[in-house]
């Protein structure tokens, strides 16, 4: 799943490459991608991109007073296709890892063409369509944007913001970290990394965390996300997935050695997916259940 560090880098590249460029055509190959049926993406034809922004894990392409808000869902991404008809797969090399549905190039479900001859293809590799486009006057008109909690990458993000999202919650802390209404931009991968660095069990209830654990978790949440954003800056968008996978210390590394204590990193079942943790660092040696 694309998370805030990779989406931030994607937005940076799109803003730098497309500022001032006008849309010449929009081709939505999967009708379920268009969420504002009365205002389809094709209504932006002729408009020039003025800015690119991020809201949590969502992309916001600004065209004057209109916004094309893109939810990448679980397996969505974007890739360039140049004007000479080259196979777009060359821009989206396969990556294997915990966040990828399959190895191999993902199908493009929507293509936005610009007046410099290039096209931006939006892909979705999941088993269902999770990619979504909204054309709105205000990003807050998109429910997924309107409900977002504070973003740990925001310089104004404070310990008070964190405590409001976390303290007293009778919910597993990994679920709280991934809950976009509580904290924006964090998904399965970075929540694993945050909890491992903070030495906290992913299944511990937020309400049970001590003041010392909360302090570590706040520092680690901010540090992990802001460091990752800086590390991804300037990485071409076709390389971001591979760079993310390579940077993970525990996520996607079941069976490998923990870089901190030397124990074996293990899988456990979480919601509808699989996550990773270190028993020695995080659960006092207890092995969490893995459904199989």
Automatic annotation (TrEMBL):
Which InterPro entries does the protein's record reference? FPG_cat, FPG_N, H2TH_FPG, Ribosomal_uS13-like_H2TH, Znf_DNA_glyclase/AP_lyase, Znf_FPG/IleRS
- Formamidopyrimidine-DNA glycosylase catalytic domain ranges (all copies): 2-97
**PROSITE patterns, per this entry?**
FPG_CAT, ZF_FPG_2
Domain FPG-type positions: 249-283
Q: Which SUPFAM superfamilies match?
A: Glucocorticoid receptor-like (DNA-binding domain) (SSF57716), N-terminal domain of MutM-like DNA repair proteins (SSF81624), S13-like H2TH domain (SSF46946)
Keyword tRNA processing assigned to the entry: answer is no
Q: Enumerate the catalysed reactions.
A: Hydrolysis of DNA containing ring-opened 7-methylguanine residues, releasing 2,6-diamino-4-hydroxy-5-(N-methyl)formamidopyrimidine
Q: Does the keyword Transmembrane helix apply?
A: no
- Keywords per UniProt: DNA damage, DNA repair, DNA-binding, Glycosidase, Hydrolase, Lyase, Metal-binding, Multifunctional enzyme, Zinc, Zinc-finger
Q: Which cofactor does it need?
A: Zn(2+)
Q: What is the superkingdom listed in this entry's lineage?
A: Bacteria
GO terms assigned for molecular function: 8-oxo-7,8-dihydroguanine DNA N-glycosylase activity; damaged DNA binding; DNA-(apurinic or apyrimidinic site) endonuclease activity; lyase activity; zinc ion binding
Coiled coil (residue ranges): none
Q: Under what name is this protein listed?
A: Fpg/Nei family DNA glycosylase
């Amino acid at each position: 799943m694309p998370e805030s560090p990779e989406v931030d880098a994607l937005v940076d590249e799109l803003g730098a490459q497309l500022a001032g460029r006008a849309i010449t055509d929009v081709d939505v190959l999967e009708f379920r991608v268009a969420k504002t049926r009365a205002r389809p993406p094709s209504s932006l034809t002729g408009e020039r991109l003025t800015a690119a922004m991020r809201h949590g894990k969502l992309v916001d392409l600004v065209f004057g007073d209109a916004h094309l808000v893109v939810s990448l869902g679980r397996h969505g991404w974007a890739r360039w296709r140049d004007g000479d008809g080259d196979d777009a797969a060359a821009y989206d090399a396969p990556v294997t890892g915990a966040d990828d549905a399959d190895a191999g190039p993902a199908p493009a479900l929507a293509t936005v063409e610009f007046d410099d001859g290039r096209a931006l293809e939006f892909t979705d590799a999941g088993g269902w369509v999770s990619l979504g486009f909204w054309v709105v006057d205000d990003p807050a008109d998109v429910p997924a944007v309107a409900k977002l909690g504070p973003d740990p990458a925001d310089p104004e993000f404070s310990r008070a913001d964190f405590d409001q999202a976390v303290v007293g919650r009778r919910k597993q802390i990994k679920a709280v970290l991934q809950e976009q209404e509580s904290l924006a931009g964090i998904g399965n991968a970075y929540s694993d990394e945050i909890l491992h660095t903070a030495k906290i069990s992913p299944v511990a209830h937020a309400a049970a965390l001590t003041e010392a654990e909360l302090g570590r978790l706040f520092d680690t949440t901010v540090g992990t996300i802001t460091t990752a954003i800086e590390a991804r800056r300037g990485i071409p968008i076709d390389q971001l997935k591979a760079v993310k996978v390579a940077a993970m210390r525990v996520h996607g590394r079941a069976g490998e050695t923990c870089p901190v204590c030397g124990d074996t990193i293990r899988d456990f079942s979480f919601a509808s997916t699989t996550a990773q943790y270190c028993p020695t660092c995080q659960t006092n040696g207890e092995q969490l259940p893995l459904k199989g």
